[in-house]
């Protein structure tokens, strides 16, 4: 059977999980909404956006990008669980293409993230966030966010396959916080000490957050540097680069199951 | 032969998990692969099921080479690993439909097959429930059903009853017999000797990555000697002289054991010898306290074989 068809069947399997256990994706969503509210209202009053603009309007695209990044946890955990429980071995003993298992993960996680984006966008509109650009730009922003999620997927698949122990997924869960915060997702890099701001500006998450802000017609909080000039290109380039690194690594980790 | 391996080798660092592993199993039988922990049973199964690459040797499953024709092999095998590898979140029926579709069945066919398998393995009532609510035995049966979707030529069962209670074990045994009756070759690994004894037509005993004995359970038991008849006499009886008298009367040496006040005859066919022993006891007017006919168990075979692997392999 082709990997695409098997991948679709496995996508349905992963989606059926959420139908059986809806609380898992719902808690994920509630978590994103909670973060949005905490930063938007609890901390938001104390944060000013360089270059001017409303903080909620600045924050929302950043939260969208951040939630795409946090998806790496779910991907890594699901892959590691399947590998640990012997389900992956079962799939590997079937006459299906070797890309099927990964494709099933990609399909289901992208679907989940698309729903998450829609819910967060609707939530944002409820608390005063506005899209002030045209529909085409807004759609491109959503596509860039999903492209970023796509690159996070391959990191998650690699980590889940290569380090099957529970420690690895815990490490991912801990690491996403500093990496997520050391970006322009929540605050502008220009409010940070110069060296820290430079690191934050080079975070792939910042490229996607800034590009989404620009495309939605929201304040970007960036007035100079490569992020101000070519955020969209960076938001295309970073995910492609990450995918180019982690997709082959994932394929190798999957093949390596054969030597173990 | 439905399953053939010649000289399979696989190393993990310094450990030779497979060290010249040979196997030949004809179609439609249950073959037991018996060995202590770490003997290499799981590695052998994984190699035959195309899950791992071996370092050397050849293996053919259902007529196809596991290395060069892995796809053909996979279409003809079912693999049931040590953990029940079914999806716990999905229902039993959902699992079987999913695996059926992954084996290339259409949605309609997969559903029909799932219903038949649920019925065959006694899971129809629990079909819609999440597998996480299943008992260990039910989970295993679902696992076996999932491996049986295409009525595979070869079904690999890696320690299918480890951790199950006796009732669940019986359920799984019934399922395995059902599979073999349908014509599938079953390779069953186990550490439980009674399991191999109950199910397998032939047993390969494995130790240190290779086969140290391969025969029917009965022949394996014969290999370590015949039956034993043990006569326990009263504590005040003169054991040595009774032994001498019985040896003369029966024509087989009676070996006395002072501690248990018993005499043991090593005999060829227990039942035949038993009659002679009883007659001799009668003639000597000896009333035994106990009289036991004991056949060697597979446990003894197993311990003998795996205790001295080099000698047995020769």
What can you see in these coordinates?
The complex is a heterodimer of chains A (260) and B (314). Chain A is mainly alpha-helical. Chain A has 10 helices and no strands. Chain A has helices at 3-20, 23-43, 55-84, 87-92, 100-126, 135-162, 166-181, 194-201, 204-216, 226-256. In chain A, α2 (23-43) packs across α5. The longest helix of chain A has 31 residues, at 226-256. The mean pLDDT of chain A is 90. Chain B has 2 domains: 3-222, Rossmann fold; 226-294, Alpha-Beta Plaits. In chain B, 39% of the residues lie in helices and 26% in strands. Chain B has helices spanning 41-48, 70-74, 92-102, 107-120, 136-147, 166-181, 193-199, 217-223, 239-250, 270-283, 298-307, 309-313, and strands at 3-12, 15-25, 30-34, 56-61, 64-65, 77-80, 154-158, 185-190, 202-207, 210-215, 227-232, 254-257, 262-267, 290-294. In chain B, a hairpin with a 2-residue loop joins β9 (202-207) and β10. In chain B, α3 (92-102) crosses α4 (107-120). Chains A and B meet through α1 and α4 of A and β6 and α3 of B.
Which structural class should the secondary elements of chain A be placed in? mainly alpha
Q: In sequence order, what are the helices and strands of chain B, one letter per element? A: EEEHEEHEHHHEHEHEEHEHEEHEHH
What is the count of distinct domains of chain B? Answer: 2
CATH homologous superfamily classification of the largest domain in chain B = P-loop containing nucleotide triphosphate hydrolases
- Strand line-up in the sheet with most strands of chain B: 6-7-8-3-9-10
Strand content of chain B: 25-35%
Tell me the number of strands of chain A: 0
Distance from first to last alpha carbon of chain B:
24 Å
CATH domain topology of the largest domain in chain B:
Rossmann fold
Helix content of chain A: over 70%
What fraction, in percent, of the residue positions of chain B are helical? 25-40%
Tally of helical runs of chain A: 10
Mean pLDDT of chain B: 86
Number of domains of chain A: 1
What does the average pLDDT of chain A come to? Answer: 90
Q: Quaternary state, please?
A: heterodimer
CATH class of the largest domain in chain B: Alpha Beta
Global morphology of chain B: elongated
């Amino acid at each position: 059977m082709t990997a695409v068809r098997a991948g679709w069947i496995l996508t349905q399997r992963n989606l059926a999980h959420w139908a059986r256990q809806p609380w898992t994706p719902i808690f994920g969503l509630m978590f994103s909404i909670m973060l949005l509210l905490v930063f938007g209202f609890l901390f938001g009053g104390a944060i000013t956006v360089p270059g001017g603009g409303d903080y909620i309007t600045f924050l929302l695209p950043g939260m969208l990008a951040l939630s795409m990044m946090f998806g790496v946890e779910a991907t890594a955990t699901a892959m590691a669980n399947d590998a640990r429980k012997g389900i992956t071995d079962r799939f590997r003993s079937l006459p299906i293409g070797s890309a099927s298992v990964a494709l099933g993960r990609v399909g289901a996680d992208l679907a989940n993230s698309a729903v998450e984006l829609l819910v967060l966008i609707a939530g944002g509109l409820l608390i005063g966030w506005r899209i002030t650009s045209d529909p085409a730009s807004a759609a491109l922003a959503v596509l860039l966010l999903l492209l970023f999620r796509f690159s996070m997927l391959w990191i998650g698949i690699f980590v889940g396959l290569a380090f099957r122990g529970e420690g690895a997924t815990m490490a991912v869960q801990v690491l996403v916080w500093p990496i997520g915060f050391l970006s322009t997702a929540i605050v502008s890099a220009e409010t940070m000490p110069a060296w820290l701001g430079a690191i934050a500006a080079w975070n792939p998450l910042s490229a996607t957050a800034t590009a989404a802000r620009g495309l939605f017609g929201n304040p970007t909080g960036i007035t100079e540097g490569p992020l101000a000039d070519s955020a969209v290109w960076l938001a295309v380039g970073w995910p492609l680069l990450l995918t180019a690194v982690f997709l082959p690594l994932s394929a190798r980790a999957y093949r390596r199951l054969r030597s173990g | 032969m439905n399953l053939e391996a010649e000289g399979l080798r696989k190393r993990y660092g310094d450990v030779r998990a497979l060290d010249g592993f040979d196997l030949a199993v004809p179609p439609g039988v249950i073959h037991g692969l018996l060995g202590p922990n770490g003997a290499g049973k799981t590695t052998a199964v994984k190699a035959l099921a195309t899950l791992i690459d071996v370092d050397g040797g050849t293996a053919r499953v259902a007529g196809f080479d596991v290395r060069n024709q892995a796809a053909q092999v996979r279409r003809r095998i079912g693999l049931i690993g040590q953990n029940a590898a079914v999806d716990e979140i999905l229902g039993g029926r959902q699992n079987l439909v999913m695996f059926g579709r992954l084996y290339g069945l259409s949605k309609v066919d997969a559903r029909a097959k799932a219903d038949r398998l649920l019925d065959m393995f006694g899971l129809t009532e629990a079909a819609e429930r999440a597998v996480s609510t299943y008992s260990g035995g039910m989970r295993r049966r679902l696992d076996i059903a999932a491996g049986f979707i295409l009525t595979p030529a070869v079904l690999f069962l890696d320690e299918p009853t480890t951790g199950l209670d006796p009732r669940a074990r019986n359920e799984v045994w019934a399922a395995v017999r059902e599979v073999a009756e349908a014509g599938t070759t079953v390779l069953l690994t186990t550490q439980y000797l009674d399991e191999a004894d109950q199910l397998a037509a032939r047993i390969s005993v494995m130790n240190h990555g290779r086969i140290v004995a391969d025969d029917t359970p009965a022949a394996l038991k014969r290999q370590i000697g015949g039956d034993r008849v043990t006569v326990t006499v009263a504590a005040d009886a003169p054991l040595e002289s009774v032994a001498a008298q019985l040896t003369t009367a029966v024509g087989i040496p009676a070996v006395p054991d002072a501690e248990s006040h018993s005499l043991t005859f090593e005999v060829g066919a227990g039942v035949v010898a038993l009659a002679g022993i009883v007659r001799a006891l009668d003639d000597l007017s000896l009333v035994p306290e106990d009289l036991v006919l004991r056949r060697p168990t597979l446990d003894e075979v197993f311990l003998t074989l795996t205790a001295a692997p080099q000698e047995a392999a020769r």
